Structures are given as structure tokens and as C-alpha cells.
Amino acid sequence: MEAPMHTINNPAQTTLFDPFSRVLTEKTREQLLSGWQGIFREAILKLMPVQKLAKHFSAAMGRPSKELYSAAGLLVMKEFQNWTKEQAVEAYSFRMDIHYALNLEPVAHDLSVRTLERYENFFLEDDLAAEIMHLVTLATVELCEVKVDQQRLDSTHLFSDMATFGRTRMMGVTIKRFLTQVRRHDPEGYAALAEALRVRYEPGEHRLFGDTGKDEESRRNLRQQVAEDMHALLRRFEGDAKHNRRSTFLMLVKVFGQQCEVAEEKVVVRAKTGGNVIQNPSDADATYDGHKGPGYQVQLAETCNPENEVQLITSALPQTAVESDTAALPAVLEDLEKQDLLPKVLLSDATYGSDENVQRAEAKGIEMVSPTKEGAQETGASDPYATLTVDDFAIDEQRETVACCPAGIAPESSVYDAAAGKTTTLMPASACGACEFRAECPVREVKGTYRLEHTPRQRRLAGRRREERTDAFRERYRKRGGIEGTNSGLKRRTGLGRLRVRGMPRIRQATLLRTTGWNILRAAASAKARAKVAALARKRLKTARFSHNRPGVRYHVPCIWLDPAALWRSTAPTTASSLRIAA
Fold it and tell me: Cβ distance 557 to 22 under 8 Å?
């Protein structure tokens, strides 16, 4: 089938007569301009990557496609408005405010769910959601005059469109789906299986094992039985070419390998599997977080300068639920660096605040403000909040050697071993034995010698622990809590908490477009952005309004002054829809 011919109407152009002048009053136009629709029409729509989208269509032949700026814009709106596909199609067809935001004529427009899905697949194939997130972030930062020098970082959990199963039911559902395929494509092979096995998995997925007792012994026996059933099916069909390449069989192999093992020809259910295992055969990418459950998460960086009128999300990094926040920081910093949005100060909770991460951020010129999570053994003190730590010693940070102790006593020797990454300091026994700070001091007596061993890491952690107990640190750090409100707002306003899709590629696309929409909504709350949008609209329209002489009726007709002779010389039709002039 030949691809349709692409249709592109540049939003920077306008018609000779504004089609909305007959359907909008002055007040309703102002309402649109001050809402997210005005932000979208004047500042966001032009950023849609229509040239990349146009590659999927013919340049000169075929039936015209939907206007590509409006199609791309609709996909962004669908996500941050949390619409179903049917709701998105209805809005595109009938809603006047959506027509205004998408630069469409205020009349009904045809669009099918299948066409919408086709554009979604194009977005997925070209990773256009990431490009839109990048472009809109930069545009809204400039539009709202947001300062990005102070930012905060946190992650929030996401659920995909899958049911939540326990281990036994998840293994049972995996078996049932494979047996359904066997029965459909190989009735004789299905009939040859043991009757008890077939009967066990005939009920619906949510009625499986409904007759099993709820006591611990019954549940343990059932889990063992399901594991043995999986093993028997794997042995029965592993050499059968009609079945061993099916996705349901491959899923059976994967789930069995994660949940069970064979020891001395006996099937054993693993006591613990960790979080990086399949949670539902319908969504093979979803993993498990011990605190928040199955699904995904997204790392969010947000501005937090108190001088900003609104705060915007600068980076969104979707991940599976099992991935740790500690390991996520490098990827977040890399994303911010690509967009030239690196902060000078980054606030985060203790899960991000490892010494390695603090050093990594410092290498990029970022001061990371985060509580420490390492224990006392990392700080060189028996008690992490002891009176004295290695930080109380005068230490040459270049050479990593001790100059004197808190009492002002110079050591007998202090040597840094670069290979071991450790400094060994020997203090005079005569001084340490009679020191009034002996009980609180980290120096330890070892075979008659008074010894202090520390690493650069311990020194840095001790310094951070001392700092985080100060009022100045608490005052700086209190701004981090604001991102919890952003997490809640994203889930409440855009539906980010539970998405209607499965699999990492679609989860990533939906997450990026919803965080993009959040920035658009925040821009609509900025007086600076609304004023700029109103100015852009006036500049684009360059209108002059005339009153109709009919009593009781008033028409506002926007005009663009042209050379009449030039219009008469034109051979093209001069309808309102065909005359487009660069603003």
C-alpha cells in the first residue's frame, strides 16, 4: 500500500482571515491565551518534529495525511491530559479549544483510532518523545525565565497496565498461556498431556487455584506442584519445533529459570529471587522494588531556585523498578549536560548521596547537597555522631596526611599509602594516654601504640556528617521536599502513576510526553509566560477589528494589509483556508 502524501501547515503562518474570529468572543480568546492551549498554540506547536514524521509519508503523491503538526501535538496532549485513544480522537474531532491549540479550522475533523495508533508507532520508531521533551524543556525554561542553577532530584514509582500477581499465580498464568497455544495449534499434543495437569490450568487467569487452601502448607505445596508442572512441560516440548520457538514457551523457560532450579533431579523453588525478575508474562520488562512493588520508576530532576515563578522538570529518565537511585545519578547528569541544563547545586535524598556520586557531581562543577547514608565504620568513629571524628583532625587534603589532632598534638608519623588508599597516623603515647578527649577520640590503642587509620572517603563522609547537623544545611536542604509535591501532581494531573501501556519502549514514550505536558501546564501558570504568549499572538495576527452594522451583532474580523494588485495578479484561489502569509 502506497504511503499517503504528507500535509504540513507551518504554525508560524496565518490565514488572511482568522477562522476563530466568528466563534470566539474577546473574553473566550483571552481565556484560551491564558490557558495551556495558548501556550501550546503560540510556543509549543512549532517545536513538533514534523520533518522526521514526514519521512513516513510520500512527498508528492497519495491521499493527504492528517496535518502533521496537529497529529504530533495531539499525541503530546493525549498523554498529559491522560486521555484514552477514543477520548483523544473525540477531542481532535469536536473540541474547539483543541482545534485552537493545534492550529486547526474550528470545524469537525475526521480521525480514526487506527490512524492515531499509526502515528504513535511512528513516534516510537523514531524516539520522537525524547526529542520533544528536550525541545519543550528548553522552550519553557526560556519562556518562563527559569533559573536552572539550583535543582532537586528524586524518583517516583509507576505502574504499567498489568495485573499484580504473586509468585505462584504468575507461574500458573505463564503455564496457562503456553497451554492455550498448544491446544489451539496442536490439539493432539494437548490431549496427550496428563488430565490432571490440563484440568489444573483450565480456569480463567483470575480463578486459577481458587480451590486451594489459604494456609501456609497448602500454598507451599501448590507452589511446588506448579514448579514441577513447568519443569515437565519444558522437558516435554523443548525438542518440539512446533512449540519451542513460541513466545509463550520462551517465557516459560525464562520464568522457570528465575523462580526455580533443579538440584539432583529435583525441582526446587528458589527461596529468594531478588527484584530483577518477571512480574507478569504480559509485561516482561517490569521488575520489582521491595518498598514500592512491581512496575517501573522515573528519575526526575526539577529546578528549585526560590526566585523562579514556577519550577520546571529538566530531566526525566524512565527505568525499571529494580534499579537503584544511587546508580541513576550518572545518567541523569549526562542527560542534563546534553541539554546544557546542568545545575550548580543539586539537592537529593540520602540514596543518591554516596561519596562516589558526590565526587562525580563535583567533577562536573556541581555541589551535591545530600545527607549521608553510610554507617559509622565509614566515618572513622564508633558513633557517627560522636563528639570527635577524623574530620576534627587537621589534615592536609593534598597529601592526605595528619598535621595535628584536635588537641593540637603533632603525630609521630603520618603516611599515606596510595596503593591501599589509606593514611596511617601514629600519635605519641604520652600525649594520648593523658588526653582529656580520650573517650571521644577515634585514635585507637593497638599493642601499646596509638594509631589512627583513615581513607579520603572517611574524611569526606565525616565532614559531611558534621555539616548536615547544622542549621545552615537544614535550611538549604528543606527545598528538596518540594519535588514530592511534583511527583504527586504528575500522578494526579497527568495520570503518570498508572499508565495504559506495557513494555519499556511504550512506558518511556508515555512518561516523557507526560512530563513534557507537566512543563506546559506549569508554563501556563507563569504570568511571564502568559504575557509573552499574548504578545506572540498579537504579533502573529496583526489584527484590525471592525463592527458589523447589523443591530445587536458584532463581528471581529482580523485583517492583514496586503497589496490589492498583488492579490489580483495571483492565479491561486484566495479562500481563507488557502491564503497563508508568513507572520
Answer: no
Q: How far apart are CA 535 and CA 324, in angstroms?
A: 45
Q: What is the DSSP string of 482-499?
A: HHHHHHHHHHHHH-TTB-
Q: What span, in angstroms and rounded, lies between the C-alpha atoms of 447 and 434? A: 17
DSSP secondary structure of 11-23: TTEEESS-GGGGT
Q: CA angle, 293 as apex, 287 and 298 as ends, to 5°?
A: 65
HSE-CB at 305 with a 13 A cutoff on CA atoms is 16
DSSP readout, 361-404? HHHTT-EEE------GGGTTSSSTT-S--GGGSEEETTTTEEEE
Q: For the chain, what percent of residues have pLDDT higher than 90?
A: 70
- Enter the pTM of the model: 0.87
The answer to whether 455 touches 423, Cβ cutoff 8 Å, is yes
**How do strand 313-320 and strand 293-303 relate by DSSP bridges?**
antiparallel
Q: Is the pLDDT of residue 508 over 50?
A: yes
In angstroms, rounded to a whole number, what is the distance separating the alpha carbons of residues 31 and 25?
10
- Sequence-distant (≥ 6) Cβ neighbours of residue 234 within 8 angstroms: 252, 253, 256
Q: Could you give the angle at the alpha carbon of 494 between the alpha carbons of 488 and 497, nearest 5°?
A: 55
Q: What is the mean pLDDT of the chain?
A: 88
Q: What is the number of residues in the chain?
A: 583
Query: For 285, what's the count of Cα atoms within 13 Å in the CB-facing half-sphere?
Result: 17
Residue 295's closest CA among 277, 323, 320, 316? 320
